[in-house]
């Protein structure tokens, strides 16, 4: 169970951004983000977007630095990936016996 962060390689709004994810649960991710002062509005589907200025704060608080592909691999392996433009996974089918 860990929190991971990728390098601030993602441009947007005149800044560079990192992604912060958990390999355990969204509760763990939200708690970590709150500890480092990341606003809840920075959460997008399955990760927090952190500006380059906050990268060091996350690492000092214990986030594990990994590449973007490794971050995605761990998020997917944990079953927490929620990609854009895909419906949420169904937990049960109606009418199935």
Strand content: 15-25%
Class of secondary structure makeup: alpha+beta
Largest sheet: 6 strands, mixed
What portion of residues is helical?
A: 25-40%
Distance between the termini: 35 Å
Rg over CA atoms, rounded to whole Å, is 15 Å
**Could you tell me the mean pLDDT?**
90
Order of helices and strands: EEEHEEHEH
Number of helices: 3
What is the domain tally?
1
Low-confidence stretches: 91-97
Number of strands: 6
Shape: globular
InterPro entries: DUF4031
Pfam families: DUF4031
Protein name: DUF4031 domain-containing protein
Region (Disordered): 76-97
Distinctive features:
globular; alpha+beta; six-stranded mixed β-sheet; 6 strands; 30% helix
Short description:
The protein is 30% helix and 24% strand. It has 97 residues and is an alpha+beta fold.
Could you characterize what this model shows?
This protein has one domain. Strands 1, 2, 3, 4, 5 and 6 form a 6-stranded mixed sheet that branches. A hairpin with a 2-residue loop joins strand 2 and strand 3. The longest helix has 10 residues, at 26-35. It contains 3 helices and 6 strands. It is globular, with a radius of gyration of 15 Å. The protein is an alpha+beta fold and 97 residues long.
How does the SSE layout of this entry go?
Layout: E1 3-5, E2 10-12, E3 15-22, H1 26-35, E4 43-44, E5 47-51, H2 52-60, E6 64-65, H3 68-77
Parallel strand pairs: 1-6
Antiparallel strand pairs: 1-3, 2-3, 3-5, 4-5
